[in-house]
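Ticket opened by: R.M.
Priority: normal
Category: complex prediction / small molecule

The reporter submitted a protein together with magnesium ion and asked that the result be attached to this ticket for the collaborator who will pick it up next week. Submitted input follows.
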Amino acid sequence: MFLMKFSRLILTPTFISSSKLVTMPSNISTSPLIEIKNLIKTYKTPAGDFTAVNNIDVEVQRGEFVAIIGKSGSGKSTFINMITGIDRPSSGEIVIDGAPVHSFNESQMAAWRGKNLGIVFQFFQLFPTLTLLENVILPMELNNLYTKSERKERAMSLLEKVEMTQQAHKLPSAVSGGQQQRVAIARALANDPPLIVADEPTGNLDSKTAAKIFALFEDLVASGKTILMVTHDSDLARRVNRTILISDGEIVNEYLVRALSQLTQDQLVEVARRVKPQVFAPDTNIIREGEIGDKFYILLDGKANVYLTESGGSQVLVNQLKRGQYFGEMALLGNGIRTATVKSSAEEPVTAVALDNEAFNRLIADSNKLRDELTGIIEKRNIFNQLQAISSFDQKTLSAILKEMKPIEFEGGHEIIKQGDVGNTFYLLLDGKVDILLKDEHGEEILVNQLSKGAYFGEMAVMGSKRRQASVRVSKNSFAKVIELTAQEFEDLTSSSDHFKEHVKDLSSVRKKQLEGTSKRKVRK
Ligand code: ADP
Ligand code: MG
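Result attached by the on-call engineer:
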C-alpha cells in the first residue's frame, strides 16, 4: 500500500471542476496547523517489535474537520495519541502551529497541551468528585489562565454553549452519558485551544445523542476550530470535509478514498492494496478519444485536461479534473470506445492509479452505490460533452447552469410547448426526437420540422415575442430528454458565448421564415 502525499483541500468527484474548496478566513495564517512527517510508532512486545503506526505523512489545515476511520486495531488511537502527547513517537516529526511537539519533554508537553489542545475521550473521563462546573473550570486552574471570577463566568458560558447550565452543580454521575460528553466538550474548550482531538467521542452513545454531539463539533468547526475525530460511524464520517482512512498503521491515499467514497472501508483497503500509482509526465495523453479503452483511472495528484474533437478535427478543452476525480469509466460502462481524450496538464505530472476492466467490474458488482454514482456522473458528462460539442457554449457558464439541473424525460406524444401559450423557457434536447407543429386558423396541425438530439427550442419566445409560435411535441414512438432553462439562464449562456449568440440568431430567423412559409402555403391551399 502506498502513502498519501501532503494533502490539502477537498474536491468532490463530479464532472464539474468548479471549486468546492474550503476557504479560510483571511485573517488566519495559511500555514498548515499540523504537519506530520515520517511518523512511526513501534511497540516492544514479548512476540517482538510491533509497528502500530507505519510512516505517516500528513498535513491538516486550519479549520478542517477531519474524520479518522479504520478497523479496530488499525492504529487510529496510537496515531492521535502521539498528536496529543499521550503517547510518544518512535521516530518522525509532529509540528503543531509551529511547535515541535515530538521533541517536547513531559513538562513541556503538559504546558503546551494545556493551552493548545482540547481532548475528548470515548468514556468522557470527567472527575467524578467534581461538579460539572468544576470539571470545566479545572483546566483553566491547572494552566493558570484567567482570573478566578473569569474562570467561573467562562465555564458557565461554555456550559451554556452545550446546554448544560441547568445541571452545572451536579456531579457527573447524576447526568446521562450524552450530557457528560457535552460537558467534556465544554471542558476541552476551556482554554480556547485552536485544535480539538477526539477519540470515538460518540462511540459510547446512542445514535440520536451521537448526532447531537456531532452537531456540536460542526458548530465548533464553523467557529474556526480544527477538529480531528476518530469515529466508527461511517455516516458521521461522510459529513466532515476530510476523511483519513488508516489500515495497518498506514494512511490509505486520501484521493483514492475520496474518488471511491461509495465503497466500504474493506473494499477501499482492498483496492489500495492492488493498485500501483503511475506517473504521467506533463502534457502526455493518458487516454485517447476513439480508441478502445480498458482502464479506469483515479487521479491522485496533478491535473488532467479533458478534450473533445470538434467536427473540424480540432480539440476543445472541455473540463479539467483534479485529484480525487476519475475518468475512463465511460468506455468501461459503455461500448469500450473512449469518448474523450484526457491529457496531463502542461504544468505538472499526473499521478494516477489505473484499474483494469476486471477490477473495475468487480468493484461495481460489489457496490451498487458506486455503480449508481458512476451512472449519474456518466449521464452528466454525456450531456456536457454533447452540448459542448454541439454549440461551443462557454464552458464555465454551461457547467454552472448544468450543475443544479436534472434532465427531464418525456414520453412520445407529450406536448412540451403549446402554440399561443405565454412562455419564457428554453429547452436543450439531450436525446430523442420532437416535432415542431403549427396550427392553422381551423386548428389543424402541420408538421414543420423534426428536431433530434443536440437541438434546442423555445428560443423565439425567450428572445422576442413571449407567445409560443409553434407547438413542440415529443415524436410518436420516441421520447425526449430535455433540460429546461429559464430566460435568465438562457441570457447567461448567450452573453457568455458570441458563437452561441450568433447561432441562435441565425437559427431563429431561419425558423421564423420556415413558420411563415408553412402558414402561407397552408393559406394558399
Ligand atoms: P485503533 O485505535 O485503530 O483501534 P490502536 O491504535 O489502539 O488501534 O492499536 C493499534 C495496534 O497497536 C493494535 O494492534 C494494538 O494491539 C497495538 N497496541 C496498542 N497499544 C499497544 C501497546 N501499549 N503495546 C503493544 N501493542 C499495542
Ligand atoms: Mg482506538
